[in-house]
Amino acid sequence: MALLLLLAIGAYFWTVSRYPALYKKYSQGTHVSVTGAITFGTVMAVQPGMPLRQRVWRTSINWLQANEIGMTFGFFFAAAALTVLATIPRRRTSNAYVNSLLGAAVGMPLGVCANCVAPIGRGLYASGMSTESTLAAMFSSPTLNVVVLAMAFALFPLPIVGLKLATMLLMIFVFAPLVGARRAAPGIAGECAIDVPASATWAQVVETVAKSYAKSFWHIARVGVPLMVLAAVLGALAIETIPQQGLHAPATLGGIALVAVVGTFLPVPMAFDVVIAYLAMSRGVALPYVVTILCTLGIYSVYSFLVVGKTISWKIAAAAGGAVAALGAVAGIAAMALR
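RESULT FIELD:
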């Protein structure tokens, strides 16, 4: 029953919303457009002449609306995953690299951005999966999705895509295993475990699964929802206050570092990194900046940082953000040789 619930939630989201939306962006090719500051579209117009407070509020609303479907899936799927995994005795191996591979395999088909995958990561970790599996799943979902990769290969030269893939694989198979700590499974997994006697009726089974799912959902939502609102405001504040005119200047080491930090911080939707980097390249932005944007924007965000910090540890959350920014900056510097 728990597994059927998990598959039903996933199948509905993937077939009705996520993959049709991703394929639509892919089919638009070079004609894909962006009208929001950190979203593809807007429900509330944001004009440069508006007061900062109004721009931040409107951009926050646009972000929450853009992530409405993905976040809904993230919370419901995370609770279902925790419910299912809590019934499995073994959720990790003794090899950190195998755990990272397992996490990457879980994350790749999810089809959700770095923001919407954060609640799922919380659910995976709460179920007893290792730190490296949780991080690998969170890194692979927004970056190694087959449609997003197809978009990258279609819009960028092979060397640029190679730099992006290199940074992502380093995060998944080097960073994640290195920081993966052998921690005891959180107590919530035991609370959500399903124990149904063989003599139970179907009604009793449904009731037991429902109670377990409710506990799982509360564990995800009580942290994820408030942090989601906070991330919306912080992301809006960052994009509305950081001047973007500098992207049109010649690339410098300081500029690359700043772009890497901002790209790591901003909470953007699925495939936004590929699209915005392509638009920047088509408008004459220096290639090192383009590559840095491509390699940092979308894999991690302030929301990922907040959820990882609250769920695993603030040290690992900061290390993940620092690693993404550092690798993105290195990729940007390497791009100087491609000009």
